[in-house]
Task: structure prediction
Amino acid sequence: MSAGSPPAFPRPSPVFRAVGAAIALAGELSLLGRRPPVVAVRRELELVVRRVRAEASDVVSLLLTRADGDPAGPELPRWWPGAHLDVVLPSGRVRQYSLCGDPARRDGYRIAVRRIRDGAGGSREVHGLGEGARVRVRGPRSGFPLIRAPRYLFMAGGIGITPILPMVRAVAAAGADWRFVYAGRGRDSMPFLDEIGGLDPSRVVIWADDERGGPPSGEALVANAPGGGTVGYLCGPPPMLAAVRSAGASLAALHVERFAAPPVSGGRAFTVELARAGVSLEVPADRSALEVITERLPDVAYSCRQGFCGTCRTRVLAGAVEHRDRALTAPERAGTMTICVSRAEGERLVLDL
Result:
């Protein structure tokens, strides 16, 4: 690990101005109050961990590049602020990580990952990757796109900085009106503070809980909106999301990316039968099928837990499905479901698990 080496993507590049111009001029991206559909990208790349760098306590960034001598050359597919990669780890686990570097750098993708000590193991596995390790990635793709707006309020909590940082840079380069609040337990836990130092300090608030007596309230966050018509972008832990939602009535729209699965809303209890395992499980009204199934079958593949990546797609052998995803096509819905968000339309489903 090279903690003292320079950042992989230390400075904004001209591409951020191009992104800003797209925000300002592309009317088709003016989707205030609506979340555009996620477009699946069926692209898989074999990449190499070129650099591992400590960014904060329990946070490392990885620079992923093509292998030397790759006949495809060093240039990687283009991405835009808010995009992420599906990373297929050596164990077979699939995890999603936001791209947090410079979109102009077509020779490498940067991701950053916080180690979750009591998590499911994906973050610990990433922290165990060394320089030279090979990983497969899918994408890039975006479920958290940056859209046109007259004003922006960006809010990030801890590792939630990863999708937000390229957005702030793009909007700043475009000359738009923006503010940015970055919160965390303490400065030692907050990655990329050095890069944030290069932004206009009059537009940035660093909120370290240990310096301010606790986390910011939703009102304190939203109070930084630069004026009417402000669109909020937020990535952070569930309490931060809940606080901003309760206080964000003054925002024209609020776009969020979650650390965790959203709570189940309007669910009904049902029974799910796992045909190959030969067991039936009860799914309560307030839990997802994925959550219940992984207690019995922990190796079931999943990633986003929000219904937009399709990793947990499972064949349905019997029963009607209440589809809640944004990943499957109509033909796919005829015989499969995303078990992270979709539910039984009746009392029972039989799945090919």
